[in-house]
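User: My collaborator sent over this chain with a note saying "see what the structure looks like." That's all I know about it. Can you take a look?
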Amino acid sequence: MAFDYYDSDKSTDVLALLVNRSSEMFSDEPLGARSDISTHDPTLQMVDNLHLGLPEFALGLILLSVYTVIQLVAAPINLVRDSTPITYRVVRSQAKSFAPAHRMGYNFRGNYLYPGGGLPRLHYLDEGPAHAHHVLVLLHGMPFWSQSWIKIIPKLTSQNFRVIVPDLIGFGKSDKFTDYRVYNTSMHKASLKGLLDHLGLHQNLVLVGHNWGWMIGAGLAKDYPNLFNKFVILNTNNLPDGELVPQRYRNMAQFTRFAVINAFFLAFNASMNLLRELFPLSLLIKSLNINFTKEEIRAFMSPHLSVSECGGTTAFPLMVPVFPTHPEAREMREIRQFLHRSKKKTLVAYSEASLLPWISQGDFVVGNRLIFYQNLTPETTTTPFRIPNGGHLIMYDRPDVVSQLIINFVLAS
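Assistant: Without extra context I'll predict from the sequence alone. Here is the result:
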């Protein structure tokens, strides 16, 4: 399956590329009968189409062993920890904690509101013309915050786009529940809907999501189909809906391939399940790009300097449905069904995949998930883009490329 590689050093005319494909890929008319997603499982297609060599298999089997051992160790510990009552205590990161981010150029004017429903205070950026024709909602992933968009915000507003950039509750300058068990997709969707209602934004927005930000935003799009008219997907997971069950696959060989493909995440999930708020986030961030400096890592870490500030970062990995009994599995299945039926114009951009963290550049976490979205919405999604020389946080690592792709995509018709 061919992908377009786009680099700012090349003379590729992305606008022309998008426009030329618009009649086929972005048409509002159906392009033929669509298969039902119950018989069209993009997870299986992803597994069948990804190449796995001997190194990937060997590493995957080692990581699956690590996953099993850690989960066995964590199980009795968590029986005790999770028997305690859920607490709704909220903390707020101190202003001085964000000094490293400010030194790195995060100097936008912050805005705050209480989104309703008893939710704590939410922080957001609102940049660009108030009455712009194009309004983009930029949603960060894990363990990042609005600072991750710092390099592309000025490029987008220079095109007279308005950009709304919230810190999800538990992240950035938004308030944080200390107990990871409070967090779920419904809470995040409610806070975002409260923000958009507060701003009077109800339709024809452009959703730009990275990793968990995309998955939360896609859930909101499912609940309010007229809210967004275009989607931009950046380095994100494949909407896991409880895939680690052998009966989902044709045979054990296919199931084993999926387990190997997902081994890095499973090992990470188990480590978070064991360590919870004590998980070393700085180590995780460094693994996502070998070129991050200490000052950049300190900027990313600004909101999470104490254990009490890490409820949100603990929750997101544990909110991923590994098994179909997970409480978020139904939400992910519904998002898959919505996107499979959707005719929304969609841009998908990923960095290259890598085998190992800290050694090679690329995304070792979800870099191999790009093909999933092409199979999920094959008739509505433009040809996916692979962007070289970037890590998991592709919009921060390659801002010129990503911003140009987004600008051309938004302006194309």
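A starting point for your reply to your collaborator: The CA atoms of residues 126 and 164 lie 5 Å apart.
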